[in-house]
Design brief:
Blueprint: H1 2-14, H2 21-34, H3 45-51, E1 75-78, E2 87-90, E3 95-97, E4 103-110, E5 113-116, E6 123-128, E7 133-139, E8 143-153, E9 159-169, E10 175-184, E11 186-187, E12 190-191, E13 196-200, E14 204-207, E15 210-215, E16 221-225, E17 244-246, E18 253-262, E19 267-275, H4 287-295, H5 298-314, H6 324-338, H7 343-347, H8 354-380, H9 395-408, H10 413-425, H11 435-450, H12 455-479, H13 520-533, E20 534-535, E21 538-541, E22 547-548, H14 550-560, H15 563-571, H16 598-610
Antiparallel strand pairs: 1-2, 2-3, 4-5, 4-10, 6-7, 7-8, 8-9, 9-19, 10-18, 11-12, 13-14, 13-17, 14-15, 15-19, 16-18, 20-21, 21-22
Helix pairs in contact: 6-16, 8-9, 8-16, 9-10, 9-11, 10-11, 11-12, 14-15, 14-16
């Protein structure tokens, strides 16, 4: 019975790297069941920061029966163009392949103590967008541990995440230590799932029947453990050569030991290779699979991957700024957007909705990548059958994408204008109680009129535009009254007037171009937003996901063109160029649904292409 429950949990867990509420409830219940009684073990940093009584950010869980990461949700996703897979790396270096239920952690055993990277400070983490290499570094008493991660393509076309661990001795005398890469049943969300783990003769680990990791160099020790043997780190240096484990709680773990003695100033390293799940992997790996993963030439694959990123970024349209920090962040943002440029990523998982998809695709088009975007558009908007399920009721967003594409590729009008007209014909003119939807539909009809094949077809869309415009103003009048202290109505977008979702409605200025930013109603809305939602740290969003909102901050900055509206966005970015969808006012980390919000990277690209921000 428990196995069946776990299988159902895994199926839901697999659906999306962006969590759903149902998935979060399941994760919270599993965390609540297992974590409080296992706090002596080494878990993701957030567990110790929120569960230990000595932490200033301790959270009680009795009232909800859930234990969730609600204060430290910030991570970096590694991707590669055209792939629907990748990995996420949290701010403490925990590495989680997407669609897997385990992570690779790093421990160090030195002078009788075992420490995990989640416990080590200070720490630096950077991404080089021109190579795709993410580097995480910790410096302690006389030594430095560095991990680098990069996605490469094996000779058989398999995407592989290559992780290199390096330790350098800064002491004046030799130093003995043990590097311990550990496969752990956890993710940045909390407790993961590992039923079985086995070590094969080809220096490979198989986790729940899937080939999961191959070691470049033979280790000095391998230990596989059940949950009954926790805390696992206590067995480093004590137990020898346990090559498999099965756990009834799905909390199996494994670690390998590299026992090194480093001369003064010397450095030693080793690499592991993790095959990334593309949805087509075999359930039972063969010796051929292991050999293919272990023997492909990493010395050749690594520079090839770097060359691909360098060549892609050289094609980018330069931003309208010479500020070196902003230029670097512009390149990094493009790197992330190119890394998810794949059909399934555009319609589910990495992005929340079609508006976010529109931010991403139009940012790439405007940045000079229209030719790369077009194949994805063709997959998503089949010119023969353009109204797929992910298009219906989102026609305005798709019409903006196509309008932007044709502005860069006018020679493709014969292909895409009929698609635009077909989309515009299906735009509803009924009232759904949400003004933001009406704004997008109005703009979509405007773009559709421009794509009409003849005057008769154009008049049909113009009539629909007039009908929808009339109903939209009636809806506006119904929800937004005039007050003595508010001389002009606000441009609202939700049935609850004058909350922070007003900021979403600024799309009427950009990108929909339905209002001028100098319109008194827009000025009134911006003034209201600044008075009620702006703080010294940025724009605070009280509605879920509550916290400082980077995406709304970016939208406000693009609309107003004020540098003072852009600067809070730059203050909230991580060292790897990542924003979560909401920033916690106290921890400064993420507190929303996702730790890496691509919509903000896309909006930052739009901002850099909009003006110079002098």
């Amino acid at each position: 019975m428990f196995s069946a429950v776990m299988d159902a949990f895994k199926r839901r867990f697999d659906r999306s790297p962006r969590p759903t509420r149902l998935r979060m409830q399941e994760i919270g219940e599993r965390n609540y069941r297992f974590l409080p009684s296992r706090l002596e073990d080494l878990w993701p940093a957030w567990v110790h920061q929120t569960c230990l009584p000595t932490s200033p950010h301790f959270i009680a869980t009795d009232l909800t029966g859930l234990l969730l990461n609600t204060q430290y949700r910030r991570w970096t996703r590694l991707g590669s163009p055209g792939l629907n897979t990748g990995a996420i790396v949290d701010s403490h270096g925990l590495i989680t392949p997407l669609s897997r239920h385990w992570s690779l952690d790093t421990w160090i055993a030195i002078e009788g103590n075992v420490v995990g990277t989640s416990q080590l400070t200070p720490m630096a983490q950077t991404l080089d967008p021109t190579t795709g290499i993410l580097t995480t570094q910790w410096t302690a008493d006389g030594w430095t541990l560095t991990t680098t991660g990069q996605i490469v393509i094996a000779d058989n076309g398999q995407p592989v995440l290559c992780i290199t661990f390096s330790v350098q001795n800064h002491r004046a005398q030799p130093m003995s230590l043990t590097l311990v890469p550990a496969i752990r049943p956890c993710t940045p969300e909390g407790v993961g799932i590992i039923h079985q783990i086995h070590y094969l003769s080809g220096h490979a680990f198989v986790i729940d029947h899937a080939l999961s990791m191959v070691l470049d160099t033979p280790p000095d020790n391998i230990v596989c453990l059940s949950d009954m043997d926790s805390p696992a780190y206590r067995h480093v240096g004590n137990w020898e050569m346990i090559l498999s484990a099965t756990c009834p709680n799905a909390l199996a773990t494994a670690f390998v030991e590299y026992r090194w003695t480093l001369a003064p100033g010397s450095r030693q390293e080793t690499t592991v290779r993790i095959p990334l799940d593309t949805g087509q992997q075999k359930r039972l790996p063969s010796p051929v699979d292991v050999a293919a993963l272990r023997t492909f030439d990493l010395a050749n694959a690594t520079p090839l991957a770097a060359q691909q990123w360098t060549a892609l970024l050289k094609k980018a349209t330069p931003p309208h700024t010479t500020n070196p920090q902003w230029v670097a962040l512009y390149q990094t943002s493009l790197h992330y957007l190119l890394g998810i440029l794949e059909r399934s990523s555009m319609t589910e998982g990495a992005l929340r909705d079609m508006t976010e998809t529109a931010w991403v695709l139009t940012a790439l088009i405007r940045a000079g990548y229209a030719t790369l975007v077009e194949p994805v558009l063709t997959q998503l908007l089949n010119p023969e059958k353009p109204l797929a399920s992910h298009v219906r009721n989102q026609e305005g967003q798709w019409l903006w994408i196509l309008q932007t594409f044709l502005s860069q590729c006018p020679d493709q009008e014969a292909v895409w204008k009929p698609v635009m007209f077909a989309l515009a014909k299906h735009i509803r003119t009924t009232d759904d109680g949400h003004l933001a939807h009406a704004w997008w539909r109005l703009a979509g009809l405007k773009w559709g009129i421009g794509a009409a094949p003849d005057e008769k077809a154009s008049r049909v869309l113009e009539d629909r535009y007039t009908t929808l415009e009339k109903r939209t103003w009636e809806q506006w009048d119904h929800y937004f009254e005039v007050r003595p202290d508010e001389p002009a109505r606000l441009i609202g977008n939700f049935i609850t007037p004058r909350d922070s979702t007003l900021i979403d409605a600024l799309v009427v200025v950009w990108p929909l171009d339905l209002f001028s930013k100098n319109d008194n109603r827009i000025a009134n809305t911006v003034s209201y937003i600044r008075r009620h939602f702006m703080t010294d740290q940025g724009l605070f969003q009280p509605l879920p996901p509550s916290g400082f909102s980077p995406s709304l901050q970016a939208l406000l900055a693009i609309v107003t063109g004020e540098r003072t509206d852009l600067e809070p966005l730059l203050n909230g970015v991580s060292s790897t160029g990542v924003w979560p969808d909401a920033i916690h006012p106290v921890t400064g980390s993420g507190c929303g649904m996702t730790g890496h919000d691509y919509a903000v990277n896309a909006l930052f690209v739009h901002a850099m292409l909009a003006r110079s921000w002098t």
